[in-house]
Automatic annotation (TrEMBL):
<dbReference type="Pfam" id="PF07730">
    <property type="entry name" value="HisKA_3"/>
</dbReference>
<dbReference type="GO" id="GO:0016020">
    <property type="term" value="C:membrane"/>
</dbReference>
<dbReference type="InterPro" id="IPR011712">
    <property type="entry name" value="Sig_transdc_His_kin_sub3_dim/P"/>
</dbReference>
<keyword id="KW-0808">Transferase</keyword>
<dbReference type="GO" id="GO:0046983">
    <property type="term" value="F:protein dimerization activity"/>
</dbReference>
<keyword id="KW-0472">Membrane</keyword>
<dbReference type="GO" id="GO:0000155">
    <property type="term" value="F:phosphorelay sensor kinase activity"/>
</dbReference>
<dbReference type="InterPro" id="IPR011990">
    <property type="entry name" value="TPR-like_helical_dom_sf"/>
</dbReference>
<dbReference type="InterPro" id="IPR019734">
    <property type="entry name" value="TPR_rpt"/>
</dbReference>
<protein>
    <recommendedName>
        <fullName>Histidine kinase domain-containing protein</fullName>
    </recommendedName>
</protein>
<feature type="transmembrane region" description="Helical">
    <location>
        <begin position="398"/>
        <end position="418"/>
    </location>
</feature>
<keyword id="KW-0418">Kinase</keyword>
<dbReference type="InterPro" id="IPR050482">
    <property type="entry name" value="Sensor_HK_TwoCompSys"/>
</dbReference>
<dbReference type="InterPro" id="IPR036890">
    <property type="entry name" value="HATPase_C_sf"/>
</dbReference>
<keyword id="KW-0812">Transmembrane</keyword>
<feature type="domain" description="Histidine kinase">
    <location>
        <begin position="461"/>
        <end position="651"/>
    </location>
</feature>
<keyword id="KW-1133">Transmembrane helix</keyword>
């Protein structure tokens, strides 16, 4: 299930009061009818746009354009600068990141023309935010740090507050959630201190994302509820939309699909009202996910196709990938393997294209930087020793960038190769013919039940009989030790005897546990297998990973659980004895069709034809238990490439 990632809000660098937006806008519009064609009207038009942009971004853009036209007519550079960066912010609210970047770059050029350090710092930061929303994090960091350096020198708490929020969003996008929380809580604290509720609502939304990803549900719900109250108080549809979108994500994580759909439908209405196409796309996909989980496949497909149409229209590449994956899941749920595979292949093809595009772009940027550094190195070779040392440090950084880029490329290639391998495995059909008659199966059942009963009896006899006797002997020896006077040599021999007795008791307990694991009887199959794999790991003889799905809170019939446990135990023992493997994986999946057991290792492998002639007790026991449960087994092994065993049991 995909997570629903709410929109991260970009804040303009203006400092707005905490009045209701509707009342503020109406008041400003009344003033507009009485204003003259001067610089005051420019600022008034910008203020009306700012009060409108969250609920009606298209209307806000009209006011900003009027402000820009009037500024050019009056040759009012400060007004034209304000128009450019506010218009860029409105575009980001609508999800139009490329156009937003263009206007923020124009704003920077105007700020440099005015030689206004504050405006330059703000524009650098806004450009960084635009790059952040376009997932160009290297450039985002570069511009944000340049802007922050200028803004920090001004000592303005209102600007610092917005800088902290922008940094929290940037660290969130880089999945550094702890650092994001640090900056987010700073921004929230400053917004409270300054009494700026509109900003506080947005900062609470942003920090809720990091809380959610750090699995802090109480903090997540607390900040979202506070943000919701602020949005209702300010009548800010943008805040209300994003809060509900985040609440939908939290409900989805808790598998409450009815509540998820309620919030998503509210998000959808608000997104359409304010013209947020990315919010609309995400809401449609969320609704489709809830219907998929409820088995309403036709309705889920309809919503998914609506979302896909919007994604393609607005070029939301990441959302498009998520929707292809969702449509693939719907196809598989409908047992439409053809369309399921088609959507899967389309998703991976587009993912590969995006990866290649990113790698190509990064490589070009790194190459350009490298060439630039080489030219600068030639120019500055005649300068002082300190300058030469600085250039060498820069060159080393460029080489590090190239190495990081190469490592990233190799990682992507490895990911794609692994994905292809897993896909081939998942599509293989594994069948074996049933060779046992009902009479043979009944005989096998009797033998297996008798064997397990005997194991249970022996385990109890060892534990309760021999175990009690050995423990009694140990107690008697310890009592005698306190009452006897012995030489140092005799005392040492006596203590060695007690140690050997301890070893005997531990060995007896190990044998009793192997005969009938106590965890299997008390806690069930999942816990018993997890303990078994953990014990193998602790022994250091094999790195064994255990994975399970669908076994939580599921009661499995005793004979079936014992049989599955013995099958896994025997397969792992074969890996230890014959495979020469360093790592192995045990995977148990319980679904409506039965239980699937997969055991894989990276050992030396073998020719599977040998098994046709094998008369070993281990393989014979495995076959008997599989036949008892009417199951089937498929073995795939290649010399020097390991072995994979898949067993399907229709229980």
């Amino acid at each position: 299930m995909h997570k629903i990632y709410p929109i991260l809000i970009l804040l303009s660098m203006a400092c707005l009061p905490t009045l209701s937006q509707v009342n503020k806008r109406d008041s400003l519009i009344q003033q507009l009818g009485k204003s003259k064609e001067d610089t005051a009207k420019v600022l008034l038009l910008c203020a009306i746009g700012e009060a409108t942009e969250n609920n009606e971004p298209e209307t806000a853009k009209q006011y900003f354009r009027q402000a820009g036209l009037l500024s050019r007519k009056l040759h009012y550079d400060a007004g034209e600068y304000k128009y450019l960066y506010l218009y860029g912010n409105a575009l980001i609210i609508q999800g139009n990141y490329d156009s937003s970047l263009y206007y923020q770059q124009q704003a920077l050029a105007m700020a440099e023309k005015m030689k206004d350090s504050l405006s330059i710092g703000i524009s650098l930061f806004n450009i960084g935010i635009s790059y952040r929303e376009m997932s160009s994090f290297e450039k985002a960091i570069e511009y944000c740090l340049r802007g922050r350096k200028i803004i920090d020198e001004l000592g303005n708490e209102k600007l610092e507050m917005q800088v902290d929020d922008a940094l929290q969003v940037l660290y969130y996008n880089r999945t550094n959630y702890d650092q994001a929380i640090v900056y987010g809580e700073k921004a929230v604290a400053l917004a409270r201190k300054l009494g700026m509720k509109e900003y506080l609502g947005k900062y609470l939304i942003n920090v809720s994302l990091s809380y959610q990803n750090r699995n802090q549900p109480k903090k997540t719900m607390a900040v979202l509820e506070e943000a919701l109250k602020i949005g209702q108080e300010l009548q800010d549809n943008r805040i209300l939309m994003v809060v509900r979108q985040n609440l939908a994500g939290a409900a989805l994580k808790q598998h409450d699909y009815a509540l998820t759909r309620k919030y998503a439908e509210e998000t959808l209405d608000l997104s359409r009202k304010i013209g947020s196409t990315d919010g609309e796309t995400t809401a449609l996909r969320t609704i489709a996910v809830t219907y998929l989980q409820e088995g309403k496949l036709a309705t889920a497909k309809a919503y998914a196709h609506q979302a896909m149409a919007l994604s393609k229209t607005w070029n939301y590449k990441v959302e498009e990938l998520s929707l292809y994956r969702l449509l693939s899941g719907i196809g598989y749920a409908e047992k439409d393997l053809e369309h399921g595979l088609l959507y899967d292949d389309t998703m991976y093809a587009k993912l590969e294209g995006m990866v290649k595009e990113v790698i190509s772009k990064q490589s070009a940027d790194l190459e350009k930087k490298y060439e630039t550094e080489k030219k600068e190195s030639r120019i500055h070779q005649l300068e002082a020793e300190k300058t030469v040392q600085d250039l060498r440090i820069r060159q080393k950084n460029i080489i590090n960038y190239i190495l990081i880029g190469g490592a990233a490329t190799l990682s992507f290639i490895a990911l794609l190769t692994y994905r292809n391998y897993r896909q081939k495995q998942a599509l293989q059909q594994k069948r074996i013919n049933e060779l046992q008659t009902e009479k043979q199966l009944a005989a096998t059942e009797a033998v297996l039940k008798g064997e397990e009963q005997e194991r249970t009896r022996l385990a109890k006899d060892l534990h309760d009989g021999l175990g009690g006797m050995l423990s009694g002997i140990k107690y008697s020896f310890n009592t005698m030790k306190g009452n006897l006077i012995m030489t140092a040599e005799n005392l040492q021999a006596f203590e060695r005897g007690i140690d050997m007795l301890d070893s005997s008791i531990n060995e007896m307990r190990r044998v009793a546990h192997n005969l009938m694991p106590e965890a299997l009887v008390k806690f069930g199959l999942d816990t018993a297998l997890r303990d078994f794999c953990h014990d193998i790991n602790q022994s250091g003889s094999l790195k064994l990973q255990y994975q399970s799905s669908g076994l939580e809170n599921v009661e499995i019939e005793s004979n079936t659980a014992i049989t599955v446990y013995r099958i896994v135990q025997e397969l792992v023992n074969n890996v230890l004895k014959h495979a020469g493997a360093a790592t192995a994986v045990v995977q148990i999946i319980k679904n409506e069709t039965g239980i699937a057991i997969t055991v894989e290792d990276d050992g030396k492998g073998f020719d599977t034809a040998i098994l046709q002639r094998s008369k070993g007790i281990g393989w014979s026991n495995i076959h008997s238990r599989i036949d008892y449960l009417n199951g089937k087994m498929d073995i795939e092994s290649t010399p020097q490439k390991g072995t994979s065993v898949l067993i399907e049991l229709p229980v």
